[in-house]
Amino acid sequence: AQSVTQLDSQVPVFEEAPVELRCNYSSSVSVYLFWYVQYPNQGLQLLLKYLSGSTLVKGINGFEAEFNKSQTSFHLRKPSVHISDTAEYFCAVSDRGDYKLSFGAGTTVTVRA
Amino acid sequence: DAGVIQSPRHEVTEMGQEVTLRCKPISGHNSLFWYRQTMMRGLELLIYFNNNVPIDDSGMPEDRFSAKMPNASFSTLKIQPSEPRDSAVYFCASSLARGGRETQYFGPGTRLLVL
């Protein structure tokens, strides 16, 4: 099973500033990679996923992530955040052919005016 | 589509009582997952069903926990007897399982407090 490390537990950021959330996973075997977002008192919803092909993946709400196989990383970025991006963000990984998702511990993003 | 539906949204009970959490997956999805989220342990997979059959229950903490999926549109997670350490948010998620590439769609969760 994969292990997923989200390197920052909390990221405070000012509105309209860029943000990067870092994610590393344990294995270099073929994987699927996901970022989910959890708004307060809600379930998780998918931001974006990498299955194959281009290593730069674009998702909803202006987020994008880059898959780096050699560094086993899948960092999430947004060039300009809004107050509404305040949420917890989870990186998740599954081995190809395996239904099981391994989640990171989450990164709480707090956007301030 | 209504998405994954969970009930109740909040549950407060006393230690020793039976708790039943309910989930209705998205119509047409053939995989269902129960997760538990706590501050200490994060998101943990409790059990995975495929085509209504339990495939992996290795995450179920102990015999006090049981889960059923009698048909494609309904699942329950039962805790009997409940203990304070079971307090957590329990999520149900569903997907079209194709070797892990499919998105899991999460319900809003049930926030359980055991006193």
What would you note in describing this structure?
The complex is a heterodimer of chains A (113) and B (115). Chain A is globular and about 40 Å long. Chain A is an all-beta fold and 113 residues long. Chain A has no helices and twelve strands. The mean pLDDT of chain A is 93. In chain B, 0% of the residues lie in helices and 54% in strands. Chain B is built from no helices and eleven strands. In chain B, the strands form two sheets. In chain B, strands 2, 4, 5, 6, 9, 10 and 11 form a seven-stranded mixed β-sheet that branches. A four-stranded antiparallel β-sheet of chain B has the order 1-3-8-7, with no helix packed on it. The radius of gyration of chain B is 13 Å and the shape is globular. The mean pLDDT of chain B is 94. The interface between A and B is medium-sized, with 24 and 22 residues.
